Amino acid sequence: MRSACASRDLVSRRILEPSGDADGVTAANATTNNRTDMMVYPDPQWTCSATAPMLQLYEDVSYRVNVVEALQEFWQMKQARGADLRNGALVIYESVPSNAQPYVCYVTLPGGSCFGSFQNCPTKAEARRSAAKIALMNSVFNEHPSRRISDDFIEKAVAEARSSFKGESEEADNPNTGIGAFRFMLESNKGRTMLEFQELMTVFQLLHWNGSLKAMRERQCSRQEVVAHYSNRALDDDMRSQMALDWIAREQECSGSLRKELNQAERELESARLASRELRFPKEKKDILILAHSQL
Question: pTM for the complete prediction?
Fold first, then answer.
């Protein structure tokens, strides 16, 4: 039996020296089919199917790896090697309150990506390990060069976005178009990985979902102005509280709208969790709506 230290060293080497080919990132899908929206978003579903083979990392070894420790050490190593982690390297776990199994746990990574336990977990500890496992697999896969925002990545992503939305080639260089704003966001985050880029994308997804982008467009705010402002804005309690107030106002205008939206958000989150997908956007939606409901 090898020591725990030796097992972590082996995992570290595999993490920091990824090998093999990786599927490309689809970065063209938007959260809506309306091409007049302020933004074009990358596809949030790139994480699941491509990372499932990484589970073999644990099946191939004859000893158990503490995935919770390995996940934390992974991000600490990234920070020590110079990664730009604006909020530090801390990995945050959140257990869903429950008195009976199956238990559910979420883990939020530095950079904002969120994953959840995807297995039927009989204990809270097992739910924590399940969430850490899928998060570690995605963290490992995220080290592949194809997941880093580079000039080549930007050109491919913008071309795919333009093709999907049948945009003209000039739109990519015009910051007042959705595709141009998408390029601006990517170029502003050059050198970062897709997981490290996640929180910024979640901010704009929430702004779109909440109706804030539409309101800004009606006030004649340009896409570039909006992107420049929110690119430096963290997703914090103040932003969540403001969005909750917006949903309280909607509920007061149309009784039942809040409960309907909350039920839909809960279904989306549960479906994404069981499919091992990235969860930050649906989870934030649910949290904001629960906050609004509690204030009512």
Answer: 0.75
- Could you give phi then psi for residue 224, rounded to 5 degrees? -65, -40
DSSP letters, 176-204, are TSHHHHHHHHHHHTTT-BTTTTHHHHHHH
Rounded to the nearest 10 degrees, what angle do helices 4-16 and 124-141 cross at? 40
| pLDDT the model gives residue 172 | 55
Strand order in the sheet with 114-116: 92-95, 105-108, 114-116
First CA to last CA distance, the chain: 57
Q: What is the largest CA-CA distance in the chain?
A: 66
Beta strand spans in the chain (E): 92-95, 105-108, 114-116
Question: What pLDDT is recorded for position 243?
Answer: 95
The closest of 74, 287, 31 to 195, measured between CA atoms, is 74
Query: Concatenated DSSP letters for 52-100?
Result: GGGGHHHHSSSS---HHHHHHHHHHHHHHTT---TT-S--EEEEPP-SS
Nearest to 113 by CA among 207, 53, 45: 45
